Amino acid sequence: MDDDLEDELFHQTFLSHMRFLSKIVTNSPLNAAPFIYTLRILKFYLLKPETILLGFCLLVLFFFFHSLELWLKTVVNRIQIAVGLQTAARSGLRFLVSNAAIKSEWKLKEGNAAVYAIQGRRPTMEDRFNIITDVEKTGISLYGVFDGHGGQTASDFVEKRLFKSLSERLVASNDGNTDINYAQILTEEILNVDKELITIAKQRRDIAGTTAIVALQHKNKLVVANVGDSRGVICDNKGNAIPLSFDHKPQMLKERKRIKKAGGFVAFNGVWRVAGILATSRALGDYPLKDRNLVIAEPDVLTFNLDDLKPQFMILASDGLWDTFTNSEAIEFVRSRLNGTLNGAWDITHQAFLRGSVDNITVIVVNFKNDTAVKVSSSAAL
């Protein structure tokens, strides 16, 4: 009985309080005038064109000074590196880059050809190279650099398969035949290897691809085939830099027209890219982009007469070098170090790393002043 009485008292007390509060709320009008006035003031000042323009300018200045700070840090670092290198040169010392920094390296020196390659700042090594001098006693020499992307399977396959098929084709064509179309052979074999790679890649759903810069030398003739943005340059007898190839970039007028005609587009994503994906417009592999011919493997082939050029040396390299060196800078740099370690390939590779290259770097230097036959060598151990 006592419990029922307590419940009834609690209930009546609660109802009386609620009635009291209800009267207060219903009899007191909400005074929203200060709030509305504040909103009007903010709307008047914040939505004025001058205020919007000022806010935009402040935002631009913020990003500008943020970018400037990063740029200044990079410049200061490069100045410190340059000062360090000059000090080392005056003291007769050579600058060194620690093995921990470059992660892994590959080097080769036989006869007149030298190669140096480093993994650099990349998590994996996707570059490959190959050298075959005096193919089966034909007097023909082959040099190649292959810069993989999306994995190493494409560059690894092309390096091995292309040089094997080229060697077989050249030996067969050289049997008593003095009039050989080397440009046609290079083009056909590159396209054949690309077809093989695409077939295998589709089966494995492997989207990897690779560039290719391949140089064929026979007597006084030099034939260079290029697919992608690896590059070749030669130093003539006057020290001039003569391009052996031209990069296939999506923003180039010829390449952009071809891509748009195929139904694709070029978009800027850090750099100009095919369909916003690939930074080179030609490559072997890359089967998802090959199905619509957005990316092709058709090489550009240039032929040079070495008697006219009287060359001193030749450089073939992946874009890890060309991201930090122009053609002329590379020729000038190697020319003064041609008699150094690996024909200067070691020096210029490390210099590219010090300049901030974030890619794998592979450099082949062929010294025409020391034209000695070398054996078959490649990056198969990579």
UniProtKB/TrEMBL annotation:
Family: Belongs to the PP2C family.
Occurrences of domain PPM-type phosphatase (ranges): 112-368
Chain ranges passing through the membrane: 20-39, 51-72
Metal-binding listed as a keyword: yes
Species for this entry: Strigamia maritima
Designated name of the protein: PPM-type phosphatase domain-containing protein
CDD domains for the chain: PP2Cc (cd00143)
Pfam families: PP2C
